Amino acid sequence: MSERTNTNTEKKKPPLNGRRAVPSNNSNDEENEVPEMEAFGLIPRGFNPKDYLRVVDIQMFKEPHETNKQQHHTDKYYSPKLIVRRGQPFQIQIDFNRPYRPETDQFWLEYLIGRYPQQNKGTYIPILIGDVLKPGEWGAKITHKENNSVRLSIMSSATCIIGKFRLYIAVWTPFGILRTHRNPATDTYILFNPWCQQDAVYLDDEKEREEYVLNDVGIVFHGNINDIKLRSWSYGQFEENILDACLFLMDKAELELSGRGNPIKICRVASAVINSRDDDGVIAGSWDNTYTYGVPPSAWTGSVDILLEYYSSKQPVRYGQCWVFAGVFNTFLRCLGIPARLVTNYSSAHDNNANLQLDFFLDDEGKLDTKLTKDSVWNYHCWNEAWMTRPDLPVGFGGWQVVDGTPQETSDGMYRCGPASVQAIKHGHVCFQFDAPFVYAEVNGDIVYSRREKNGTQVIENIDTTHIGQLIVTKKVGSDGMMEITEEYKFQEGSEEERLALETAVMYGVKKQTAQDPAYQPQTDVDMVFQVQKAVLGSDFKVTITFRNKSRNYYTATTYLSGNIVFYTGVTKSEFKKHSFSAKLEPSSSSAFDVLIKSSEYMNDLLDQASFHFFVTARINETGKILAMQKAAVLEIPTLQVKTKGETVAGKEMSVTVEFINPLKQALENVTLRLEGPGVLRTMKKEFRQIPMNSTLIWEVKCIPKQPGLRKLIASLNCDALRHVYGDLTVQIQKP
């Protein structure tokens, strides 16, 4: 029998390759066996371990109200274990079987992580008891002795690995080392520390730390540049099991444990594992309006459900679009202690060949040729910024770094993006890793309209240099308002600095085709603009096209309006409106023309973000020149009312209602409502078969809030005919 068990354990060992003596150590979950008695040689017969100093109990002071979690800003984590931040001392107490005698007794601590702990990799950390703690280096000193107990202050290294460590206490005897047995209750999580000056993620502003590390709800800005919409998102980084789920993501990405103290490496691998492309990561993206066997991206109200489902099933969660990838990524970063924020770039370029220009091809009538046009302008695109130093780059490129988990293009063979220094993007220094040219193009491209002549030659008809990256925003610190950060990414349009940054980017290999095509001579004496009237979903609205003829000539313009229903990524699903007319342009005057859009024309094909894209092209018949312009428009979507009834006290039952009035000229079928609020209630779902037109739906939920303080409830409504319906409510939960 003993032989068989032996061969079994042999099989379990992973295969070694010739290059390493120890297999790669890339799972925080796996453990090794640690001997409780490590003999120095033969043990004499009379040896009794009980004669020596023995550990009876270890107290971790790990309750949320106790000093460790209070001082380390980890009291919000819903976890029974000790969670501390690196580079800052924490306290534990060891109870021995008799008083500790420093002259003769010797004990030390051992922190281990992973299956193959090694001291030189930082995965096995022996800590001797000393007299002083050096800042930012591993050490321990005794702060208090009483009866059989010893109180220790322990300092962790400001560069140590982030993850869950196992703790052993070792006692020296003349014949061998005695260790405590494996006790999961003493496991210690060590996180990044934005409060510690030696930590790579140190952030010096307390208000910013409260927002970018400790705030568990946030705002996603969406819609488009002319109609900015916002909704709440629950990050929930402190909810039960989320910390373990985030550590599992690094195991899934097979990030070597020794690299897990480095925020640059963590961000790089996380941007790949957040999406499911090429590594079965967390979220499967879907942009085609069919969400069979999954949750539509617009239905999610936060990250917790997604991360917990992935942690238990190990299969990609369906489905996400950019704000879902960014929301989950933000939870991951804040949970580990890396300051992070979710950013929206309006009119974001998805430039397939990174040549800093988006090519829109027109046919000979001036209509858009959808087969030839491969680049697209996203109404908006969300990514994240993470705060850290960049010792791998020259001085000055630390601070906010762009990371993006949405799968757009591959980087080093995988769908990932970043970290790219925002400062480097602004100044055009796109040679600095990672993926700066791609992000530079997202915020700086030009739109070039060109037309193919009958003989096959391309003629540039129009260049729009200001459409892309017009507005870049994030949530304000300490409030739900919007903060513009466009100038963090780019200089003023048309300024000398902007020109210089562009030349720098081109010098570092960003391809830029010149607009100085000798054949390109646009019509400069006529301006064309158009406005889309704000409209509620299901109503008629108009598009107004205005020409300003600045010349003394009399012109006629053959004008073509194309109305398209688009995904928010700017990709067209269908053209629902075609309208041509001839406009007479009097000398030195302006003329406006209205085109009516009826709800019956667009309702059948509408996609979940209620997004339109209008193209207007006008040919000046007298000169043959073409004016071209495009604009996205979003309809007003109805909202949900979230209310509470009665008192809201921690630990007492409270009542929440969600109300909705169906404004459409049709009944809504198979409607799903979701409601969540970190610290107040776990996500609840409810299905409704039908909501007749103009009727009101009321859903009441009972819950028991866990934590006092200012909390947010977030609700969403979803069905095939109507998506992106949200509501939220901020509630003050009283102390009991």
Automatic annotation (TrEMBL):
Pfam families associated with the record: Transglut_C, Transglut_core, Transglut_N
Stored SMART domains: TGc
Reaction it catalyzes: L-glutaminyl-[protein] + L-lysyl-[protein] = [protein]-L-lysyl-N(6)-5-L-glutamyl-[protein] + NH4(+)
Keywords annotated in UniProt: Acetylation, Acyltransferase, Blood coagulation, Calcium, Cytoplasm, Hemostasis, Metal-binding, Secreted, Transferase, Zymogen
Any single GO CC term annotated in Swiss-Prot or TrEMBL for this entry: cytoplasm
Coiled coil: none
Subcellular compartments: Cytoplasm; Secreted
Cofactor binding remark: Binds 1 Ca(2+) ion per subunit.
Transglutaminase-like domain ranges (all copies): 314-407
UniProt-listed Enzyme Commission number(s): 2.3.2.13
GO BP of this protein: blood coagulation, fibrin clot formation
Top-level EC class: transferase
UniProt GO molecular function: metal ion binding; protein-glutamine gamma-glutamyltransferase activity
Xref: InterPro entries: Ig-like_fold (IPR013783), Ig_E-set (IPR014756), Papain-like_cys_pep_sf (IPR038765), Transglutaminase (IPR050779), Transglutaminase-like (IPR002931), Transglutaminase-like_sf (IPR036985), Transglutaminase_animal (IPR023608), Transglutaminase_AS (IPR013808)
Catalytic center residues: 322, 381, 404
Cofactor annotation: Ca(2+)
Region (Disordered): 1-34
PANTHER family referenced in this protein's UniProt entry, alphabetically: COAGULATION FACTOR XIII A CHAIN (PTHR11590:SF42), PROTEIN-GLUTAMINE GAMMA-GLUTAMYLTRANSFERASE (PTHR11590)
Family note: Belongs to the transglutaminase superfamily. Transglutaminase family.
Function according to Swiss-Prot or TrEMBL: Factor XIII is activated by thrombin and calcium ion to a transglutaminase that catalyzes the formation of gamma-glutamyl-epsilon-lysine cross-links between fibrin chains, thus stabilizing the fibrin clot. Also cross-link alpha-2-plasmin inhibitor, or fibronectin, to the alpha chains of fibrin.
Protein name as it appears in the record: Coagulation factor XIII A chain
Source organism (scientific name): Heliornis fulica
